[in-house]
Amino acid sequence: MSGKKVRYGIIGYGLLSATRLVPEAFGFKPGWKKPEHAELVGVSSRSDRNRKEIENLGIKWYTVDEMINSPDIDAVFIVTPNLSHKDIAIRALKAGKHVLLEKPMTTNVEDAEEIVKVAQECNKSLFIDHMMVFNGLNIKAKEIVDSKAIGEINDFVFHMEFGLALDKPNEWRSNAANEVGGPIGDVGSHCMYSLEYILGSKITKIAATYHPKFTQSNVEDGAYIKVFLENGNIGTVRVSFADRRGNDSSIPMQMGYEIYGSKKVLRTYGTLFQFSGVASEKPKIRLELDDSEGNVEQVKQEVVQDIYQSAVEHHALSILEGKRIDGKDGLHSMRLIAAAHESAKNGGKVIEIPRD
């Protein structure tokens, strides 16, 4: 290790790496702070198109093979097409690299199980980038739920609905079912991971139905998913690529959740998105408490941190402190995605979620 910082390489330089990971997660945006426990030392991609841009930042350009085998890199952040996740992750783990893997973990449960097994055998930290749990308002929502300030929970709805299949029908998420494209795998996974974190209980059963199909995309238009938690609570996840929700500013604000308690209702706007709540972001995410008598309290965001950088720091600290992350949360997420599709294809049949 290089002092107190884990040396990372990014494998895959597409839109996410260019707009979120290099500038924000690793602090190369002007005025953006750099992570305390991680540093970006290399980038690799299938194309050399962006090589000069990366090298101008002082970051070394690698081929994938060079990066996986480099003694100058401790961990890799894999941001490649989902079908390639298994091969690259296993090669990196066996080469002695810790792995931070973009979600979904892979394209099927069996491959996810194999990645987890190899990470355990190699004693490497494996974390899947479900970054929304690091949003300060989602952290605050969890604190409120845990404190019983809204009373006993009797229902909840987590939702991410927008018009991707209408506006970008050829984008891979609207087109590549074999890449786990579609709203269940792409954004349903975020909803389910986030609700388990905020409500403090794992999903044990799922029942789902697909929305009526009317777009030209090659994936489901949307889904209505009932989730049954280990603690007895039952709620809903709504996801769609075929529902517009206003203009470019208002669409992200419709991605959030409502948690219904015996005393109050907790509502968020924009917290199930790529927002962090930093001052430069527009529109502004928010969390409200409604006592059902017309009194609405705006809850202040106490923790303001970039969600992508926080995910990197979480992984880096697990390495520096010797507290290996086993990747099983990512495997569980893959099982939820698979169960939702299985249920929807079988008339909404209730599917039990396997547990290790």
From TrEMBL:
User: What range(s) does the GFO/IDH/MocA-like oxidoreductase domain occupy?
Assistant: 140-266
What molecular function does GO assign, one term? oxidoreductase activity
Under the heading Gene3D superfamilies, the entry gives:
Dihydrodipicolinate Reductase, domain 2, NAD(P)-binding Rossmann-like Domain
- Mind listing the UniProt keywords for this protein, alphabetically? Oxidoreductase
Q: Which domain of life is it from?
A: Eukaryota
Q: Where is the Gfo/Idh/MocA-like oxidoreductase N-terminal domain?
A: 6-130
User: PANTHER family given for it?
Assistant: BCDNA.GH03377
Say which family it is in: Belongs to the Gfo/Idh/MocA family.
Question: What is the protein's name according to its record?
Answer: Oxidoreductase family, NAD-binding Rossmann fold containing protein
Biological source species: Trichomonas vaginalis (strain ATCC PRA-98 / G3)
Lineage of this protein's species?
Answer: Eukaryota, Metamonada, Parabasalia, Trichomonadida, Trichomonadidae
